[in-house]
Amino acid sequence: MEKLTTGTIATLISPDYLDETDTRPIFEWMDVIRRQNIVYVGLDALTDTTVASAVGNSMFADLVSVAGHIYKHGVSGESTETPPMIALHADEFNELICDEFVPLLNKAGGAGLQVTAYTQTWSDVEARIGNRANSVAANAAAFVPAAGTAYG
């Protein structure tokens, strides 16, 4: 987390909530979901795995929390509403999967989250998370290798 909260990276991704002259928008998942917007996050895992992992883990932990809120209270605060469809496409999945991502796959479907994961090979995912790989595969919408044949 130190890499994300210091130096140039901190000024890029962390607006100052208390600085009235800081005009950067404050990103909140619930606003994105309510507005049915699209978010693209380029983590550049090839050149900086550490920062990509830290940003990805933080983002996924936040999405798990938001999915829990939607599951319990709905998007507008009505627990009886049908959850929205939220499509998450994760490229280079084997670089992104972490402890925060597993509950997102296992439990967030009830909040309307559908995950499609792209990876070069399934063995890369297995190498990353070991025996939890079968559980992950069962809960993802699809795994798409580079050749284009879907898993799952």
- What are the low-pLDDT stretches, counting only 5+ consecutive residues below 50? 148-152
Q: Give the strand line-up of the largest sheet.
A: 1-2-3
Structural class: mainly alpha
Given the structure, what is the number of helices?
Answer: 8
N- to C-terminal distance: 33 Å
Mean pLDDT across every amino acid position? 78
Strand tally, please? 3
What would the principal axes of the Cα set say about the shape? flat
Structural commentary:
45% of the residues lie in helices and 9% in strands. With 152 residues, it is mainly alpha-helical. A three-stranded parallel beta sheet has the order 1-2-3. It is flat. The model is unreliable at 148-152 (pLDDT under 50).
Brief write-up:
By secondary structure, the chain is mostly helical. It has eight helices and three strands, in the order ααααβααβααβ.
Please describe the topology of this protein.
Layout: H1 2-5, H2 7-13, H3 29-35, H4 49-73, E1 86-90, H5 93-96, H6 101-107, E2 113-118, H7 122-129, H8 133-139, E3 142-144
Parallel strand pairs: 1-2, 2-3
Helix pairs in contact: 6-8
Features:
single chain, flat, disordered C terminus, 3 strands, 152 residues
